[in-house]
UniProtKB/TrEMBL annotation:
Residues 128-403 form the Protein kinase domain. One of its GO terms (cellular component) is plasma membrane. Its EC number is 2.7.11.1. Residues 462-472 have a biased composition (Low complexity). Keywords: ATP-binding, Cell membrane, Kinase, Membrane, Nucleotide-binding, Serine/threonine-protein kinase, Transferase, Transmembrane, Transmembrane helix. This is non-specific serine/threonine protein kinase.
Amino acid sequence: MPASGRPPGSWQSPPGPAVARASPPSLAPPARALGENLPIGVIVGVAVAGFLMALASLFIVACLSDRGKKQRPPMRKRGTMVVPAGAPDSYPPSNGPAASPSDTNSYEFTGYKSCFTYDELVGITGGFSAQNVIGEGGFGKVYMGSLGDGRRVAVKQLKVGGGQGEKEFRAEVDIISRIHHRHLVTLVGYCVTENHRLLVYEFVSNDTLEHHLHGEGLPVMDWPKRMKIAIGSARGLTYLHEDCHPRIIHRDIKSANILLDKAFEAKVADFGVAKLTNDSMTHVSTRVMGTFGYMAPEYASSGKLTDRSDVFSFGVVLLELITGRKPVDSSQPLGEESLVEWARPLLVDALETDDFREIADPSLECRYSKIEMRRMVEAAAACIRHSVTKRPRMVQVWRSLDVDGGSTDLTNGVKLGHSTAYDSGQYSADIELFRRMGFEDDLDTAEYGLSDEGEPGPGSGRQRQQRTAAGR
């Protein structure tokens, strides 16, 4: 075959020795020539096909993984709705997940609302067993319960009378369920039927402020704890008054409605419950009995409640923290049974002389911060003013107590003790009138937390009334 017959594109070596030229030509083309003969389109096609196969494999793996997740059984939570919450101290319903309370041992319920059936609550409370009763108040009994996952709850069984219908009740509960704050007891869920109205709350394990201040055989609550509780509960009430829409007036502020966790952080309970009953006669007779000793003067005379009525009641709680005395104590000398009337002149004297020994709890043995004591005394004196308009707002009270809140003027331009002329005897007569109206109601007040008292003992309505009035 002549040299000119080489396939086109073959490489021709340069002239060399004769021996090299004499060798017979190879029948196979060089390796490089084979690669160069493949069309570029084939190479590109193979690469694209490989890439597509890799993508398909990844898609199949992702689908199988997602299918496995969907087949997992969901959490058994009937009617659960996540309610967003906010900052660690204030939880409006639209700013992300809620922070947990400071007590790491308490159960986290914040952010959940659940509708329970009556049969479920029967099971949770052991058939509403008397052994599970942990409190009883003007609105009904409170039972200890346990959810399926072991979390404890407090089930409040409201008395059903001439109250709201189912639609109105659900609307009110929906408002309460959206309120989340580290110093307010969280509503876990509710139950509403034709004959039953029940509220399910988180269980707060360290009982009430009333228990720790006035319970027998308990260690003396030191001053730092008292100040911490005052500030915390003031924050919770400020949130109800200032940051809730619609604004919520508590209507029953008392030491028995301030629950404590293991770290002695305060949690205000029972807010919004008064509106759920909506029974005017029951409200007047039982609620006033339940709050005897905390009642604002204008409520005793007219039955009207405002946010400043809450402020007055909170002032009585502050007096309990300062003095260690009950709101009404029949064991005290005649004329000194009422904490408010006994403390009023002492508060003024203490602030004028800067000497708090006469007003401070003797069991503290003067072991308190004088600066903090003055703040609390000033706040208490301003809160229990006779004149509604001269009392501070709750936010002012909180700021005056909080170490980081700075100085707040609570006088409203009026010197303490000179807000208005007031007939103390008429106030006592008005209270006595309400006491007679609630004559037959037994209103032991420990609610939601553990109680050291059992079922109410036998006795006449008058005896039970006197026990309640004494703050037991």
